[in-house]
Amino acid sequence: MAVVVASAPGKVLLTGGYLILERPNAGIVLSTNARFYAIIKPIHQDLKPDSLLWSWTDVKLTSPQLSRQTEYKMSLKNSTLQCISPRDLANPFVEQAVQYAVAAAHTILVEKSQKDLLHKRILHGLDITILGSNDFYSYRNQIEARGLPLTPEALASLPPFSSITFNSDANGANCKPEVAKTGLGSSAAMTTAVVAALLQYLGVVKLPLSSNPLLRVESEDLDVVHMVAQSAHCIAQGKVGSGFDVSSAVYGSQRYVRFSPGVLSSAQVAANCLSSQEVITDVLKGKWDHEKAKFSLPPLMTLLLGEPGSGGSSTPSMVGAVKKWQASEPQKSQETWKRLSDANSLLERQLNALSMLAEEQWETYKQVLNSCSNLKCEKWKEHASDARKEAVVKALLGARDSIVNIRCHMRKMGDEAGVPIEPESQKKLLDATMNMEGVLLAGVPGAGGFDAIFAITLGESTNKVTNMWSSRGVLSLLVREDPRGVSIENEDPRIRGISSGISAVNIN
């Protein structure tokens, strides 16, 4: 039986922080080249003659980065998992992904020949390995321990899929792993990769190969992956979120409006009393009213993400504080949200205008961006020497004005709600970044806080920003925008090595 490898990208929420939680507010979410991988293969190569009568099969989950292996028994009747390893090793996101993907397979494959093949594949057991690109996690401690500077080059020198360090208890024994994250949506990418790999392995969907870009089109198969992954992620995290992280993991960069919570809230309740197959049947028949439109950064622009190393932030607690403020100050909060929504929409329009200008007048667009990449923004107007160049410069400056307004309203919302959406340390860093040559945008992604900052640079100005960040103790990640969504890989990622110039590591 063939091995299946699926991957799904992490995300950066450029606009729509907090607003994206409520319809019909939109957010721009960029998918990245940081990807989670799920590798599926059989545990048993051969089946015993009486194996077709078995009511249970084996499932093994391996996470090399955590040095963990968890074993389960899966019921063939209702697709539920029973952990036979120590329970504290379990990963609820992967567990739900497995249960709902297998349940979806039972629901979707209706012909007898399909059912028989599904039954045999499950009886062979499911050996699942998950791997996350280094950019999902913080490796500041490892870099500093090696005496290396906080630079992208130092980060790139780490082997791909590096181990995540463990905390120690008072006796020095290993306890829960220290998983300082960078805010790229690791749980959503991981859940999506596992769901996609299983649905492909079990013959439910046929997903695009990463090596064949011509096949990267939206399809019913992608929609199935999306619905199953949203369900699994929702049940695992115990609440119905906005879903933008799962949607971008499936479809790639996009303009996103969330689905009505009711499409999954009933599933969340039903999961306590119904089988996963009954729940997923209802989910697949549900009215999914989310909106997604393809989006990507205009040409000659680069997304940068920096890790300030000033401690993480709890997104759920920040969201809770903002909701509390909304309830206590409905009129004031509504006014702030309206201004923020308008600023978000304006930024989206300016970026779309730049993409259109690049398509319609490429040489002019390229000339203006290359010139502006070496200048601070107050000098950009000097290159608006004719109407065509003026249109490009006007859109660039309009985008800058929009992010300034977005940041202002986000800070105001944070002050009113009593949470550090753009903390003072981040504000100073972002102001310094925005004041550099060739910087179009800078801000805090998603819900904000201390987790990360982003910048969008023009032309060849990237190195200037990463050098400045390094001088201020900010580690520039290797993340860049990659508009692709979920895909099937041709080989185990550890064979080819994800980062260029890095040697492969052995397969288990």
Detailed description of the structure:
- One of its GO terms (biological process) is farnesyl diphosphate biosynthetic process, mevalonate pathway.
- The protein is α+β, with helices and mostly antiparallel strands and 508 residues long.
- Strands 1, 2, 3, 4, 5, 6, 9, 10 and 15 form a nine-stranded mixed β-sheet that branches. It has a four-stranded antiparallel β-sheet with strand order 12-13-11-14.
- 46% of the residues are buried.
Per-chain topology:
Blueprint: E1 4-15, E2 26-41, E3 56-63, E4 68-75, E5 81-83, H1 92-108, H2 112-123, E6 126-132, H3 140-145, H4 152-156, E7 166-168, E8 174-177, H5 186-201, H6 220-237, H7 244-251, E9 254-257, H8 262-270, H9 276-285, E10 291-294, E11 301-307, H10 315-328, H11 330-360, H12 362-372, H13 387-417, H14 424-434, E12 439-443, E13 453-458, H15 462-471, E14 475-476, E15 487-489, H16 493-496
Helix pairs in contact: 1-5, 1-6, 1-9, 5-6, 5-7, 6-7, 8-9, 10-11, 10-13, 11-12, 11-13, 12-13
Mean pLDDT: 89
Helix content percent band: 40-55%
Give the end-to-end Cα distance, rounded to a whole number of Å: 18 Å
The biggest sheet, with number of strands, parallel, antiparallel or mixed sense and barrel status, is: 9 strands, mixed
Give the overall shape. globular
Decide which structural class fits the backbone: alpha+beta
Q: Quickly count the helices.
A: 16
Radius of gyration: 23 Å
In total, the number of strands is: 15
The share of residues in extended strands comes to: 15-25%
Indicate the low-confidence ranges by residue numbers: 167-175, 498-508
Domain GHMP kinase N-terminal: 180-252
Pathway: Isoprenoid biosynthesis; isopentenyl diphosphate biosynthesis via mevalonate pathway; isopentenyl diphosphate from (R)-mevalonate: step 2/3
EC number: 2.7.4.2
Keywords: ATP-binding, Kinase, Lipid biosynthesis, Lipid metabolism, Nucleotide-binding, Steroid biosynthesis, Steroid metabolism, Transferase
